[in-house]
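Changelog note: in this version the structure field was regenerated for every chain. One regenerated record is shown below for reference.
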Amino acid sequence: MRHKLGGYKLQRDASARRSLLRGLVTAVINEERIVTTVTKAKAARPLVEKMITLGKKGTLAHRRQAAAFLVTPDSVQKLFDKVSPRFGNRNGGYTRIVKLGFRKGDGAETAMLELVDAKLIKRAADRAKRREEKLKAMQEGREGGEAAE
């Protein structure tokens, strides 16, 4: 029985597992979404969330902790400059896992691990832009109607 044993072994020894998870987390930060197996996505998710939390804190010590885990310096730069500031007012839940179905080659269940706000920010910006255009059109219509009278 596996009572109170957390985490996923992923059929690898400790060093291979750490290397795999470091690569997955770095890929999520660089690409903002990856497609992998469900189990690997579930194993990488808390690590991605932890990296974003480090990025939100933003001190030199936190930057060094992130640099010790992430594979490339570019990913550390992107984490602190672009990714973490987007989640400034959000307390966790930075990622989502979307199941995609089964892989053709070996039948493994695949999932997409992505950052939550990628679509939401764009959608909110589009809504705000449309709302402003409607308000402007309504105001111009009122002004034009008053001038005609």
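Spot check on this record: Strands lie at 33-37, 95-102, 109-115. The CA atoms of residues 67 and 76 lie 6 Å apart.
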